[in-house]
Amino acid sequence: MSGNLVKPAIDPATVTMRTGSSYPEPFKAVSEEREKRALGDAVGLSIFGVNHVTLKSNAGSAHRHWHTKQDEFIYELEGEIVLVTDAGEQMLTPGMAVGFPAGVADGHQLVNRTDRPAVYLEVGDRSEGDEVNYPDIDLALRNSPQGRIFVNKAGKPY
Questions:
Q1: How many domains does the chain have?
Q2: pTM of the model
Q3: Which residue of 24, 45, 52, 145 has the lowest C-beta tally within 10 Å?
């Protein structure tokens, strides 16, 4: 892409990449090979976020989870990823899309089981008070006076 772009246009390759996740140990490993570029932040969006995500081989997007107040939308750009939900597993290929409405207690996860990177756009709103539930592991993201914190299912902070 052109290096002469002026905002609001951007080249996603110029946006700072974040690798891994903020999960506490022992939960970090699943998404250590996940790379995100916060495109929405780069162009000043405040109502919703857009991330350009690359999952390297055998990486997961996150642990299977669902949001209490945030809608999420995924659009597959490159490679193949496996969508894991309560219904089981299904393959997503370029051009496919999937949505996760807020408050639906059906955890979702994306996993790259191939030997090539997979790339997708992740769109989510920035709903105040959102909390995250992880049905398969002893983890939750809760609101506290200190901000959002990871806790176990009994409420003890990590």
A1: 1
A2: 0.93
A3: 145
